[in-house]
Amino acid sequence: MSSMFTPDSNLELFFPVDLIPAQVKAQLHPDVHLRPLASTDYHRGHLAVLSVLTVVSDPGESNWLAQFRSMRAALNTYYPIVIVSKQTDQIVGVGCVFIERKFLRGLGSVGHIEDIAVDKNQQGKKLGLRIIQALTGISESSGCYKTILNCSDDNIPFYEKCGYQKKENEMAKYAPERPQPSARL
Amino acid sequence: MSSMFTPDSNLELFFPVDLIPAQVKAQLHPDVHLRPLASTDYHRGHLAVLSVLTVVSDPGESNWLAQFRSMRAALNTYYPIVIVSKQTDQIVGVGCVFIERKFLRGLGSVGHIEDIAVDKNQQGKKLGLRIIQALTGISESSGCYKTILNCSDDNIPFYEKCGYQKKENEMAKYAPERPQPSARL
């Protein structure tokens, strides 16, 4: 298989690559590579993979990059990872954990896993499991006393296989609709 | 009633006071005052109120203050609020919302409400409701498309009264026990 994926050393990565657990990388399917989000991943299909989850509008590259830098400026908070196909250098899986600092539990921290998505053409490679393992590892090595995530009823068995247990209920309130910028005169 | 509570202008506040919705302040019980967490709140019983929720060990004032500054250094991320008794200047309620930035939903943001606690001697003043209203207001005026929180089955009716609806399931994984520092030689 010809490999055309960009090596980590040629990328501006969101966080240091050695925070990703070595044992997760060692178990990764050989077709793919797991690394931190890079500043040029807008061009590798990052938003296309996220669109499996919800509404994803394209903000354009400069706004995407501004978000990348804004999130990174919140030091030691966001840890977004991607899985790229070694053959195409395109993103086939994404996930993020952000570390919330608290005053309770002896100034404890909690890792929140968000926005896990895997390309539908990559079934059977356990990429979802590897993403959860990598993010849980980052959370725990950052000192978090627990890692949490929200999921639908259908996905509970998958997360149980990842070592998670149902705990509480997610409650949500959606903001009132705001006027779209295009509606303004 | 003699009032000895410290005015906002004499405090170093976590975030600008005008981010707290005026209509929530207007509805607040007259015995109390709602404001951002202040750098001296370690001395106003902040950790005692949090201990209603879970394990709270006292890290000492200097570590508490370092956490305050570290969280504030993550710009536009954490919005911790407190309710103080006007009579005693002690904290009787706390809550926090942190704003998570995302790549999906047109670079959208989500508000996560965490660590709501109210002193058990303050029942009947709707302080829990005011805390949720204030944090939801901060979240929505920050542009979050939704605000979420996790709660037990027992607390679902309360959050429904606050305008929230059950959405998904919270899954949690606790980190393996780590050696305590005191166990090291």
UniProtKB/TrEMBL annotation, chains A, B:
GO terms for biological process: UDP-N-acetylglucosamine biosynthetic process. Its main location: membrane. Coiled coil: none annotated. Keywords: Acyltransferase, Endoplasmic reticulum, Membrane, Transferase. It holds the Pfam family Acetyltransf_1. InterPro entries: Acyl_CoA_acyltransferase, GNAT_dom, GNPNAT1-like. Residues 32-185 form the N-acetyltransferase domain. GO terms for cellular component: endoplasmic reticulum membrane. It catalyses: D-glucosamine 6-phosphate + acetyl-CoA = N-acetyl-D-glucosamine 6-phosphate + CoA + H(+). One of its GO terms (molecular function) is glucosamine 6-phosphate N-acetyltransferase activity. Its EC number is 2.3.1.4. Gene3D superfamilies: 3.40.630.30. It is a peripheral membrane protein. Pathway: Nucleotide-sugar biosynthesis; UDP-N-acetyl-alpha-D-glucosamine biosynthesis; N-acetyl-alpha-D-glucosamine 1-phosphate from alpha-D-glucosamine 6-phosphate (route I): step 1/2. It is found in: Endomembrane system; Endoplasmic reticulum membrane. PROSITE patterns: GNAT (PS51186). Homodimer. Belongs to the acetyltransferase family. GNA1 subfamily. This is Glucosamine 6-phosphate N-acetyltransferase. It comes from Lentinula detonsa.
